[in-house]
Amino acid sequence: MKVVVSTHQGVLYDEEVEYFVVHDQEDGEYAVLKDHVPVISVLEFGYVKLVDGKNEIYISIISGIVEFHDNVATILVQEAQSGSSLESAKRNLEAARKERLERNRQETTDFTQKERELREHIKNSGAGQL
To answer: Quick check: 5 and 17 in contact, CB under 8 A?
Structure first.
């Protein structure tokens, strides 16, 4: 069966697996094998464990939906990061979130500074005065 995990930044995972396990902190977990009945579920905070033979990949997730139909799982999430273990996936997600928040904070600070400079230039130019 095929599993596709996507965020607004692009596709994080698109591979064939034997089965996957979905875990949500609020609703518990369930596994999906080939030819499983169709499923749609909502995830707040959790992870997806993808298993193909002896290979396991964990994807830590924040806010998303899971749809499984015709042996294709589509997982659309707000934020996600993968790892070889659940702990590494969580660490990767936390690091990515911290980096994004710092970048947003810096961009906001830069915007605030530029706005201050623009107001000062307008004031000094005497624009709008008769």
So the answer is: no
Global pTM exceeds 0.90? no
- How far is C-alpha 43 from the geometric centre of its chain's CA atoms? 11
Residue 71 gets which letter from DSSP? Answer: T
Structural domain spans, the chain: 2-124
| H or E, element range at 93 | helix 86-125
Q: How far apart are CA 106 and CA 69, in angstroms?
A: 42
The fold adopted by the segment(s) 2-124 is: ATP Synthase; domain 1 (2.60.15)
Which pLDDT tens digit goes with each residue over 62-108?
999 999 999 999 999 999 999 999 999 999 999 988 998 888 887 77
For residue 37, the 8-state DSSP code is P
